[in-house]
């Protein structure tokens, strides 16, 4: 869970109207305690929310300081701290925070050395665009640059990966 032990952290939220108040809140909150301003989300009508993660006492203190800063700069709508939130709440707010334990069938597992386990042929058409980009970036000598991979469409990546694997016999 990215350095946060299960149930030993809190989730703080500060909601403002307008970005300047949000930035002031985030700055003050991050300077006031050992917390991480993990993300922000915008909604309609200029409503924006920052999410703060850390230990319970630190998050409570930083949300209080951040809320005060938001009031001075703009309009504070609401602030709230959830001590030891359920994992489903964290997954909902930060979907990328939890990595899957086991790769699903037909999913490529990227090893730490940037090598792909490829014991048998895969059906790449079922992989997400992000998974295809990670796979393409993991290949040494892949015909597209990192920039081209990050902007390539799904169909182009599927075509290039298939062509690359056919030329290399599935090896890197």
Description:
The longest helix has 18 residues, at 56-73. It is built from 6 helices and 4 strands. Mean pLDDT is 78; it is low at 110-121. Strand 2 and strand 3 form a beta hairpin. It has 2 domains: 10-93, BMC (bacterial microcompartment) domain (Alpha-Beta Plaits, 2-Layer Sandwich), CATH 3.30.70.1710; 102-172, no CATH class. The protein has helices at residues 19-32, 56-73, 87-93, 129-138, 146-151, 154-168; strands spanning 10-17, 35-42, 47-54, 75-83. Helix 1 (19-32) packs antiparallel against helix 2 (56-73). With 172 residues, the protein is an alpha+beta fold. Keywords: Bacterial microcompartment. Its main location: other. Residues 10-94 form the BMC domain. Belongs to the bacterial microcompartments protein family.
What portion of residues is helical?
40-55%
Number of domains as seen in the coordinates: 2
The percent range for strand residues is 15-25%
The number of distinct β-strands equals: 4
List keywords for this structure.
Alpha-Beta Plaits; CcmK/CsoS1_BMC; bacterial microcompartment; alpha+beta; CcmK-like_sf; BMC domain-containing protein; BMC_shell; 6 helices; 172 residues
Write the layout of secondary structure elements.
Blueprint: E1 10-17, H1 19-32, E2 35-42, E3 47-54, H2 56-73, E4 75-83, H3 87-93, H4 129-138, H5 146-151, H6 154-168
Helix pairs in contact: 1-2, 4-6
Give a quick precis of the structure.
By secondary structure, the chain is of the alpha+beta class.
